[in-house]
Give the backbone structure.
Amino acid sequence: MAEFERVRLAAAFIAERVPSSPRLGVVLGSGLGAFAEQLSALTRIPYSEIPEMPGSSVIGHAGNLCLGTLGGLPVACLQGRAHVYEGNSHARSAFGVRVLAQLGCRVVLLTNAAGGIHPSFVPGDLMLITDHLNLMGDNVLCGPNYGEGPRFPDLSQAYDLALQGAAREAARTAKVTLREGVYAAMLGPSYETPAEIRMLRTLGADAVGMSTVPEVIALRQLGVRVGAMSCITNLAAGISKELLDHSEVEATARRSREAFTSVLSGWIAAAGASA
């Protein structure tokens, strides 16, 4: 079965279980899944119940599709994502966001936990992603063309400029400092070496992680508008003297929950007006 048909099968299963189609999608990264509890009239569907949907084995990724409303706007949240380093193909790692697009989401806001490279960043900062470096060794669009999207999609504005403006305004309203920068996507699951972080800094990266970029590329090929935000949960290798540990990522994400929720809620409200 072609990937497009798998996505349609999953979306059809979901559509039968919710009263209205979501207009905006959200992907919640490591330790950030609690945001879904903000939704009213919440319907939670475990990934394991959705045909063809890949799960996540990573701590901090609950593995649920959460559908409901926020301020009256129909919203779908992916509570966790599938990563390439778990053994998924790049196409499988983008399956969830393709389902969101198939359900009717024309705007998707992506979030992740990331390591801070920029010297001014500290754990707990939020960073608006303005561009990315795809260093994952593959592209989600390799292979047969997905659906009827363009074979060679343009990524010169991968991160929607209007959505960036909406994020800045949401942060100002919430009185939360919002950093900005370039996100470098590495394959993982090992953390980077200090030499690799020096390389990334030279290339212009401000933060590094192991996700998000395949989703961005897949969504842009479908014409979906994309915004993305990182929670800086740790300083990258060689910047801090501490050894890196995933438990630190989860703990920092939990401590940042109030600021993250305030900014993301405002961002959804602003983005929803054009969804």
The chain has eight helices and nine strands. Helices lie at 3-15, 90-93, 95-103, 161-174, 194-203, 213-221, 246-255, 257-272. The chain has a mean pLDDT of 91. The chain has one domain: 3-272.
